[in-house]
Design a protein that fits this description.
2 domains; 179 residues; elongated; 11 strands; 16% helix; seven-stranded mixed beta sheet; alpha+beta
C-alpha cells in the first residue's frame, strides 16, 4: 500500500533581484519590490539563490528595503526568494520504494526511489540549511519514511511525525522537485 509523508512547504511570498548594496546596513534592497504589499513579515526566510545562502527578515523598512539578520545583508545583483516563516502548505511525498536518502548539501536532501544508482527517480527537498557535516535533513526525512512504513496500513498520509521531526530540527522546507 502506498504511504505518503505530508511535508510542510513554506509558501513563496515574493522573489526578485537586488539592485542596491545592502551589505553595510544588513539590508535587502530592490527598488522595484513591493515588500509591504506582498506581505513580507518578520521571520520570513530569504534564500539568496545566487550564493545559495539563507537569512531571516528582522524588519520591513519600506516597500523596497528589508532589514535582515546582522551580517547577512545582500550585495547588488543577487537573486532572492522570500518564503513565509509561518505559512506552509502540505506536499505529499511518497515513502514507498525508497532506496536511499542522502544529505546532498547543507540545504538539500535527496530521496532516490527504486534504485540507488544514477538515473533512478530522484526527489530533491530544498530546506533551510543544517550545519556543515550534519546529517539532520537526511536523518529527519529518513525517520519520517520509517515511521510511515511502520504505521497502520489504513493510514496513508503520515503528517504529524514528519512535521514534528522537521520542526524539532528547525528545518523548514522551501521546495520539492523531481529530477
Amino acid at each position: 500500500m502506498e504511504k505518503f509523508l505530508d511535508i510542510p512547504v513554506y509558501v513563496l511570498v515574493t522573489s526578485g533581484t537586488t539592485d542596491g548594496d545592502g551589505t553595510a546596513a544588513d539590508e535587502l534592497i530592490n527598488s522595484s519590490a513591493t515588500f509591504e504589499d506582498d506581505g513580507v513579515a518578520v521571520g520570513d526566510i530569504v534564500h539568496n539563490s545566487t550564493d545559495n545562502t539563507y537569512t531571516t527578515v528582522v524588519g520591513v523598512t519600506s516597500q523596497t528595503v528589508l532589514e535582515v539578520e546582522p551580517g547577512d545583508g545582500l550585495d547588488t545583483a543577487k537573486a532572492y526568494f522570500i518564503h513565509s516563516g509561518t505559512e506552509a502548505i502540505g506536499q505529499l511525498v511518497s515513502a514507498v520504494d525508497t532506496a536511499i536518502v542522502e544529505q546532498a548539501s547543507v540545504s538539500s536532501t535527496t530521496i532516490n526511489y527504486d534504485s540507488a544508482v544514477a538515473g533512478a527517480d530522484v526527489m530533491t527537498i530544498t530546506h533551510t540549511p543544517v550545519p556543515v557535516g550534519s546529517e539532520a535533513g537526511r536523518n529527519t526525512i529518513q525517520a519520517a519514511i520509517v515511521s510511515a512504513a511502520q504505521s497502520n496500513w489504513k493510514r496513508v498520509s503520515y503528517d504529524q511525525v514528519g512535521a514534528a521531526l522537521l520542526a524539532a530540527q528547525d528545518i523548514k522546507v522551501i521546495g520539492i522537485s523531481l529530477g
